[in-house]
Request: fold
Amino acid sequence: MSMTTYNVMAGITGIVAFALIALVFLTGKGDAMGGGGGGVRTTFKGKASFEDQVSRLTLSLAGAFVVLTIILDFISQRIR
Reply:
């Protein structure tokens, strides 16, 4: 692994982190630590609402961030 690979992955991780932060701040309802209704809901007909889609996107971005961070750690260990 090279330093260029590390820098590219760090850039991608930064973009994902920024998108996750923006999504959380823009869709926040002010109920921090409210604890109410953590699951993804669907309507009776099965079509997901906008809030459900945002929840899935947030979960996907968070998962991608975790995976990218682990990959960055792996690459940084190989560079040394």
The chain has a mean pLDDT of 82. Residues 40 and 56 are 8 Å apart (CA to CA).
